[in-house]
Design brief:
The protein is of the alpha+beta class and about 180 residues long. About 15% of the residues lie in helices and about 30% in strands. It has a seven-stranded antiparallel β-sheet, with no helix packed on it. Strands 2-1-10 form a three-stranded antiparallel β-sheet.
Length: about 180
């Protein structure tokens, strides 16, 4: 990636060097925001600034990992009643569709009801939104995001880091053999 700007000759070298340094930083994930994308369609789902660890005694395991912008985050493993296991990271908020009403049965977070959370663009299941069990079964987005008692648990394998996605090369059809 080169920045094409008309500067005096002495400045052109500076612009090229800065552009190359920015490319290296993006590829290494340095100085990048921790934007998380839907792995299926690339929709911007969550930011690292909205990470919020919500521990659960029902987690099968818990580990620390650098899955978001090089930050150490807590990843919890859960199993649903059908035996499917999911590694999740919890966020204060995320741009997901919440499929109300919330259900209190089989909640991984005692005292909270859950609802499925999906990508608003491609409808892929990305995780679950949790709210206090004593709330009405259906709430609006503003109520959900304004509360300190709500959070979203997103499935790690269904997300992609923006800085990683920007390093992927796509070969145009005309270059394929």
């Amino acid at each position: 990636m080169f920045l094409l700007v008309k500067f005096p000759a002495a400045r052109c070298v500076d612009v090229v060097v800065v552009s190359l340094l920015l490319c290296v930083c993006v590829r290494l994930g340095l100085g990048c925001s921790g934007l998380m994308l839907c792995r299926s369609c690339g929709h911007e789902v969550a930011e690292d600034t909205d990470l919020r660890f919500v521990p659960s005694r029902l987690a099968l395991s818990h580990r620390n990992d650098t899955v978001i912008a090089g930050k150490v985050v807590s990843v919890q493993l859960f199993e649903n009643p059908q035996g499917f296991q999911f590694e999740v990271v919890t966020f204060k908020r995320a741009d997901v569709l919440k499929h109300w009403p919330a259900d209190g049965h089989f909640s991984w977070f005692p005292g909270h009801s859950w609802t499925v959370a999906s990508c608003p663009r491609c409808k892929t299941h990305l995780g679950w939104a949790f709210q206090p069990s004593d709330w009405p079964r259906t709430v609006n987005r503003e109520e959900f995001e304004a509360s300190d008692q709500t959070f979203v648990a997103l499935i790690v394998d269904r997300l992609l880091q923006e800085h990683f996605a920007s390093t992927l090369l796509m070969t145009p059809k005309s270059f394929r053999s």
